[in-house]
Amino acid sequence: MKILKIATRNSPLALWQAEHVKQQLIELHPDLSVELVSMTTEGDRFLDAPLIAVGGKGLFIKELEQALLNGEADIAVHSMKDVTIDLPDELAMPVILKREDVRDVFISNNYKQIEDLPDGAVLGTSSLRRQSQIKALRPGIELKDLRGNVGTRLRKLDDGEYDAIMLAAAGIIRLGLKERITQLIPESVLLPAIGQGAIGIECRAGDTDVHELIAPLNDRETSLCVETERAFSRRLFGGCQLPIAGQASIKGNEINLVGLVARIDGSEVIKSELSGDIEKCDDTGTTLAENLLERGADEILKELIH
């Protein structure tokens, strides 16, 4: 193969991620020519409504997957937290790169940490996962939907539309905006999204040449952690835009998973933790999900889904 085409969203963060993959591939394969195929997805076009109202995070990858299926691109680069739990049969996600910081960040021009926000302050986030946990932590805060790319969200903060906003640390760091971070929120306070901080490479399932080219970019530890988190989410009905959070970590031959399901208003948070054999990631994720379902998560999710 002489030319490899990468499908990517045309937002600054998505382009950074695609360029990052491109540079690593060129270093591995000096004779390879790599081209970016950027596109505007449905999720990028519908910015006036909450994400859940227009179809969820899957809207950010649909066009990229179609480009793979049509042969217009050879691989697609995604933020793993945007990837739907079940991929089309013809596609595969064989590579997940080494993870960036998994935490969420609090950004404000007037307050040093989320605990400093007064009741009635307006905090921006588009995530039901964040909303539910923030409401449990600070019920007096007013939450307001926040859409758009990272630059747009920061501009809305600077224009005074919000007292503070919350974003994923990984995107801020990758775009070289670390100085904008006011507070890194500990995972014990705000549990991250499934796959947060990880970049995945998707390709056609039977394309062995492409699989071989990209295989060296896979980070085994990150892949195992994300696999465990996605197994947890899959058992919880696989909703990308539900108030579900999960984070896996590895110690020796064990994988540890912390997961939660919460009501959007923060009135109930069901949280648990489980460790298991590193070779049985799916079992660990599924078992923890079943534990939460038995403790009442099933009722919370059924109400939201129906």
Provide structural commentary.
This protein has 10 helices and 13 strands. The longest helix has 25 residues, at 281-305. 35% of the residues lie in helices and 25% in strands. With 306 residues, the protein is α/β, with parallel strands linked by helices. The protein has helices at 12-28, 42-45, 51-54, 62-70, 128-137, 150-158, 169-174, 208-214, 220-235, 281-305; strands spanning 3-9, 33-39, 75-79, 91-96, 104-107, 122-124, 142-144, 164-168, 183-185, 199-204, 244-251, 254-262, 269-277. The chain starts with a strand and ends with a helix. The strands form 3 sheets. A 5-stranded mixed beta sheet has the order 2-1-3-10-4, with helices on both faces. Strands 7-6-8-5-9 form a 5-stranded mixed beta sheet, sandwiched between helices.
